[in-house]
Amino acid sequence: MDSIVVQGGGELRGEIPIAGAKNTCLKLMCAALLSEEPLTLTNVPRLSDVATLTTLLESLGCEAALLQEGQSMVLSAAEISNKTAHYDIVRKLRASFNVLGPMVGRTGEAIVSLPGGCAIGARKVDLHLTSLEALGAKIELEEGYVHASAPNGLKGTTIEFPFVSVGATENAMCAAVLAKGTTVLKNAAREPDTKALADCLIAMGAQIEGAGTHEMVITGVDSLHGTTHKVISDRIELGTYMIAPAIAGGEVELIGGERALVASLADKLEAAGIEIADTDRGLKVSRKNGRVKSVDVRTEPFPGFPTDLQAQMMALMCTADGTSVLEETIFENRFMHAPELIRMGANIDVQGGIATVTGVDQLKGAPVMATDLRASVSLILAGLAAEGETKVARVYHLDRGYERVEDKLSAVGAKIERVPE
Ligand code: EPZ
Fold it and tell me: What residue ranges define each of the domains in the chain, with the CATH number in brackets?
């Protein structure tokens, strides 16, 4: 397994291209199961999670072809020859659970392994299952697998989610597009990924109104057809690379970045003293006036501050002038980066879902390790600002969600390299 080694201290200058969004792409790939005709995706990020899901889709009978060095992908599910999504793959990638809705919607049956817990929390799937049941599927749990069946097809209904779930909204939406009649999803996720999935389904012939709002109305159709769809820019990669010049200093243009995707982060960075400007090609982010000011952050569903940027923001606040309070409300165990940041000299006190961070004058490089994707990248960001060398172990987490992280950061002047462990 490789490590990433960062020599901290220098400013960042230049441009970074933002890749297609991981969490959009994965759900679009699952949606390919809804049609006999091919779905072509462009702006596909080159990530190990995409490769893992491709393997799962192939195991279900979907043919996958990569074009343009993996930046485009054609998925053809002319026939779903196997209805079981096995534990060996689903446990590696929770997004695999989102094959459930499309398979039940199209074929009336799916057997999908329960994903289990993961480092950031228990991550239950009860809302995925109750919404499929509400649509008329019979759900049985057998030996760690969910067996969902609806031999006579699904029937539209009203589903009100008790709290916002991105994955459950997307699974229910994919199941409902081929159901008989109308489905109303209340308290639906408004994430750009969910809206992008709806846009792709609409291009495939689905009837969906209200995507991007709290309430979606889906009128079932008999079948969907193929289309070509461009994956939107990854707002979490964008946000991560906005925080890079904020923590290291300098000025970086993020090509393909859009403020609307990261408005809650942009507001916080501006309050901390960072300059953000729209350009013809994206967003320009600069830190011109010394140390950033502390700001408080509370994670919330979109359009609130994303949980997937909390770790990176904590790294920034470790270097801020003052004390900030970071509250994590989405996942119950998402402060695993805090002890590692403390090893780099940070001053952080974690009490339940609240981290109080008092900025220090100087972080110090250290060997560190993280057990999830966003925590890992927060340690790289901290390493950019630290004195000396930071070695981030277990880089496979990063490769799940950041395309060529060391190349993108070294192109703007960071001293960063990948080394075999
Ligand atoms: C998606 O996960 C993302 N993953 C996550 O990104 C992201 O952190 C999360 O949404 C929140 O924005 C993908 O899209 C592949 P949820 P998801 O269902 O859909 C609880 C990353 O780093 N819940 O919105 O799994 C759940 O435990 C990843 O890229 C239930 O209790 O998130 C959590 O506390 C990490 N029952 C909360 O709801 C359910 O049935 C929100 O989870 C479903 C969820």
Answer: 2-19+233-420 (3.65.10.10), 22-230 (3.65.10.10)
